[in-house]
């Protein structure tokens, strides 16, 4: 799914779905970790005021001095916001609850939808030699998520197989369509990834096959299974790829990253 027309610089992917608990943060952390395993340098930009991606990678609240709040409001240089993680090649711009008020402070700015776009295109971003930036969005289609989708080249949509999943998805797709007609004509859909899939649940399997029927090739072949190791990993401040490298969850996220990179593995070929 590479795009030869894309300008140089890191590929920016917004991980978005306005529903909470569908696997955005888990997908952000583990796709990032899998891209790092493939030798890429990756920055995670946490723009959820809950800061789960920051916590899940071991950046404690007291270590979050300068955050994406400062990034959006242009109140600190990137070098003060971006932190290294325990994983070589994986960086993070952390978030705190401050961000919940950024939305209101941003509204009066006439460039309000472009704040993250502009922040991530400052020349000093080059010094990090990034190949990917993954933006972990809040569970809402608010101004923060709009900023992510205006900054991004593409949107990666985690979809949990449950009854109302597709309904929420059409709202998200309309937002993407609106942005393509206005602020970000180049915005693409990276793909929809089915998360927390349970092969024994008939309803979930039905939602999955409906998603494929409606969305066709937009749905990744790789499916992320429900796997307890995935849910345990954040409390050890690690991606599941490091917490339990051979778990089903870790293997699925590796396959997803490879599918995104266009590398075929037996599971996806
Ligand atoms: P979101 O960021 O969309 O709110 P999360 O990534 O935080 O969603 O996931 C919601 C919850 O589900 C978390 O407790 C997470 O650990 C758990 N979870 C996510 N993916 C899986 C999975 N594949 N297997 C088991 N639990 C998962
Ligand atoms: Mg989250």
UniProtKB/TrEMBL annotation:
InterPro entries in alphabetical order: AAA_dom (IPR025669), DNA_Partitioning_ATPase (IPR050678), P-loop_NTPase (IPR027417)
Domain of life: Bacteria
Residues covered by the AAA domain: 11-189
Function: Involved in chromosome partition. Localize to both poles of the predivisional cell following completion of DNA replication.
Name listed for the protein in its UniProt record: Chromosome partitioning protein ParA
Originating species: Rhodovulum marinum
Lineage: Bacteria, Pseudomonadati, Pseudomonadota, Alphaproteobacteria, Rhodobacterales
